[in-house]
Model the fold of this input.
Amino acid sequence: MEIDACLWWLIGAAALGIALVVTAMPELGMLAVGAIAAAVVTGVFGGGAVAQVAVFAVISAAGIAVVRPIANRHRAQLPQFASGVEALKGRRAVVLERVDASGGRIKLAGEVWSARALDTDRAYESGEEVDVVDIEGATAIVM
Done:
């Protein structure tokens, strides 16, 4: 029993689709779309081997040329909303216990945090407002 070229293209598209899911490389998805287009050329239009390969190459290359810049742009974007300790950086806090280079306590986002001053020569007294510039472990660095 001989397998039709259309079926081979569909098997190739399925394999590329599986590889896309495993590797998350959008280029493989575009190759899968090219394989499906080649299967349509051979199954519906009865195109020969040259037409199949040409359609596969053109559709795949065009897809990659369009999708790659979009994917790179999305990869380069920073998340719009900070979460966890990143969301605490830049917030204001109230000093509960004197904060200096060796330590202290602040109230930050409704929670009590250990804190130390960024400037080793500076101390902040109870009741003062400070800015959180960084978080190191469970200690807020303030100024």
In short: The longest helix spans residues 49-76. The helical segments are 5-23, 26-43, 49-76. The domain at 84-142 is CATH 2.40.50.140 (OB fold (Dihydrolipoamide Acetyltransferase, E2P)).
